[in-house]
Structure formats: structure tokens, C-alpha cells
Design brief:
Strand content: 15-25%
CATH class of the largest domain: Alpha Beta
CATH topology of the largest domain: Heat Shock Protein 90
Largest sheet: 5 strands, parallel
Radius of gyration: 33 Å
Low-confidence stretches: none
Mean pLDDT: 82
Number of domains: 3
Oligomer: single chain
Distance between the termini: 31 Å
Number of helices: 9
Order of helices and strands: EHEHEHEHEHHHEHEEHEE
Shape: elongated
CATH superfamily of the largest domain: Histidine kinase-like ATPase, C-terminal domain
CATH architecture of the largest domain: 2-Layer Sandwich
Helix content: 40-55%
Number of strands: 10
Length: 359
């Protein structure tokens, strides 16, 4: 590990000679540093702000302001600074209490040779923690970039299907219908092949629009979450499956971002699909309740209820729903309803955005 050339160490110690012993051990360990010694609460608080230490060495047993109090102050104000307790005799129970309170380590004053290794280890732990956090931030950034790229590509494909292939098929269908009408006006029987061709074109247009809608459900002239949910329930409902309904209770406009709204839509889609496949329900209700603070999505069925987690592992779909909820800071729960069936509940804060929008 490379030591910081300007390592700043704040020392809470009331005996100058003991502070000098500790500094000597630090130099012996190869640390280059500047030290600031304090012994009162006021001076310690000022030093945290003015000195901005990289490391704190705190005497655990000062008369008026000891290391335990200092540790509490540090954890409330600057929790990332490593704190090493320096003390006299310390029982096992007291040592455990120090570590549980957030100290990086403790060193007995009659064993000052341990100080150098303890400081090096605490600094290395802090460096490792920062590296892990940086790696985690980078991982999340790459995940956001991947989601954005995928969403952008889905939107592009949906537009190409709707505005490109969809329009070509529409023109083809109109030509077939026009030719059939022209033959009828001329008194010539319309060949069944032409009628079949026109019908196939209409079905192809419908399929094309369905695919485009699936790629980007919030695209098109009706692009809001409520419109997308209405279209979703319309397509899912009807024989031979259960009856599907949508209930809207809107007391405020939805202010979630477009990507967050799409996450909510996909959660509803997954929950509705699961209900249709596995619940043997007679009815499924999708509810969207919106107020000034929360967008609450619920998918309620009257089927057999959620699987017992102790006997049946959670499927990928459930994990995906949890991941989507976490991506927008929402809470998701899958619970048994009081009477019969399953409730999938997702609550997102108003104004929720994907992390990509705030990165």
C-alpha cells in the first residue's frame, strides 16, 4: 500500500509525552504525516472541521471527553474517518464494545508497537472500501447505460415497425381492399384469394402494432402510464382466461419519469402474466392509485395465492420485478390477500426517476 504523503492524524490525548510516543511509532512504521493534538470536546469538534483528518487516534479514558464520546461525534458528523482507540488496560468486553461502536481497531498503550500495523491496516481497509464503492458505482453506471441503450434501441425498433413496416402494410391492405371494391362495382366476382390477402394484410398490421407496442409500451400518440395499462388490460382480458379490469384512482398527475413509468408498466405486465398462468383466478384487477406523494400499483387476483417460499423457489420473473422496483426507489411486495388470492403491490414516490436520470 502506498502511504499518503500528507496524511493528517487527529490525536485526542491529554498527555503530550504519550502523544509523542505514538507519533514515534507511526514514523517507525514508515508513515509520513502531520498530527494535531486536542484534549477537549470543543477543540476536537473544531479540528474535525478545520483540520479534516484522514485518521483519528483517540484515548479511550480521558477525564472529561473520552474516546467513546469522540467516536460517537465522528460517526454522526464524518462517519468515513477511521478511528483507532488508544487506551490502557482494556477487558475483552470493553474491546468488543469499542469495535461495535464503530472503531476500526484498538491499541493498548503498553504495546505501542501495534500502532503502526493497526494504522496501516485501517488505512488499507478504508482504501479497499473506497475501491469497492467506486467499482459498485461503475457497475451501476454500466448497468444504467445498458438499460438506456436497450430502451433506446427498443424505441427505435418500435418506431421503425410502426412508421415503416406498419405503414407499408397499411398501404398494401388499402390496395387489396380497393381492388376488391373495384371488382364489386364492375360486377366481377371477388376472388376468395383477394379477400384472404386483404384479411392477411389486416392481421399483419395488427401483429406489427402489437410487436411495436411490446417493444416500447409508452410510445405512440397515447404515451402515458394509464393509457399503456388500459391497453394492457384490454389485451389480456377475456375468454378463455380470467376477467381482467383496470381501476384508476388519480388524485394527482403522475410525475414519474418515462423510464420509471415503463418499469411500473413492466411490473404490472409480469404480475398480470403470472396471475394468468399460475393463479387459476377468475378475476384479476389492476389498480393504479396516485396522490401527490405516491404512485401505487396493485395487481390483485382471486386465485390460489402466492407460492410458499419455503417449498417453491422464487422465479426469475419475481426477481425481475424486485430489480425494476429497486431501480426507481420503489417498494415491492407479493403477499396473500386476506380473503383469497395474491396481491402484487409496488409503491413508487412521485417524481421517481431511474438512476440514469440523476447520475
Amino acid at each position: 500500500m502506498s502511504t499518503h504523503p500528507e496524511l493528517k492524524i487527529l490525536m485526542l490525548e491529554d498527555v503530550p509525552e504519550e502523544a509523542e510516543v505514538l507519533q514515534r511509532e507511526l514514523r517507525r512504521a514508515g508513515l509520513a504525516f502531520v498530527a494535531w493534538r486536542v484534549q477537549t470536546r470543543e477543540d476536537f469538534a473544531d479540528a474535525l472541521d478545520e483540520f479534516e483528518p484522514d485518521l483519528i487516534l483517540a484515548d479511550a479514558k480521558l477525564p472529561k471527553f473520552d474516546g467513546h464520546s469522540a467516536l460517537q461525534m465522528v460517526r454522526h458528523r464524518t462517519p468515513r474517518i477511521p478511528v483507532i482507540m488508544v487506551t490502557g488496560a482494556l477487558g475483552d468486553e470493553a474491546a468488543v464494545e469499542c469495535l461495535l461502536a464503530g472503531a476500526s481497531d484498538y491499541v493498548l498503550k503498553d504495546r505501542p508497537a501495534r500502532l503502526g500495523p493497526a494504522v496501516l491496516r485501517a488505512l488499507q481497509d478504508e482504501e479497499d472500501r473506497r475501491s469497492r464503492e467506486a467499482a459498485e458505482r461503475e457497475r451501476k453506471r454500466l448497468e444504467r447505460a445498458l438499460r438506456e441503450a436497450a430502451a433506446e434501441e427498443r424505441g427505435r425498433l418500435a418506431k421503425e415497425l410502426h412508421d415503416g413496416l406498419g405503414q407499408e402494410l397499411t398501404g398494401f391492405s388499402m390496395m387489396a381492399d380497393g381492388l376488391a371494391k373495384q371488382l364489386e362495382r364492375s360486377g366481377v366476382p371477388v376472388p376468395p384469394e383477394l379477400e384472404r390477402l386483404a384479411s392477411m394484410a389486416r392481421h399483419a398490421i395488427t401483429a406489427c402494432r402489437d410487436i411495436a407496442r411490446g417493444l416500447s409500451p409508452l410510445s405512440g400518440p397515447r404515451s402515458g402510464l394509464t393509457e399503456a395499462l388500459r391497453d394492457l388490460t384490454d389485451r389480456f382480458g377475456g375468454p378463455p382466461g380470467p376477467s381482467v379490469s383496470l381501476t384508476l384512482d388519480l388524485h394527482a398527475p403522475i410525475t414519474t419519469s418515462r423510464e420509471a413509468s415503463e418499469h411500473l408498466y413492466r411490473i404490472a405486465q409480469e404480475a398480470l402474466t403470472n396471475a394468468m398462468k399460475h393463479s387459476t383466478a377468475a378475476t384479476v384487477e389492476v389498480r393504479l392509485d396516485v396522490d401527490a406523494h405516491t404512485v401505487r400499483l396493485r395487481v390483485l387476483d382471486d386465485g390460489v395465492g402466492p407460492p410458499d417460499p419455503s417449498t417453491k423457489p422464487s422465479g426469475l420473473g419475481l426477481q425481475t420485478m424486485h430489480d425494476r422496483a429497486a431501480a426507481i426507489g420503489a417498494r415491492l411486495a407479493v403477499v396473500a390477500r386476506p380473503d383469497r388470492g395474491t396481491a402484487v403491490i409496488c409503491e413508487a414516490p412521485q417524481g421517481a426517476r431511474s438512476p440514469s436520470a440523476t447520475a
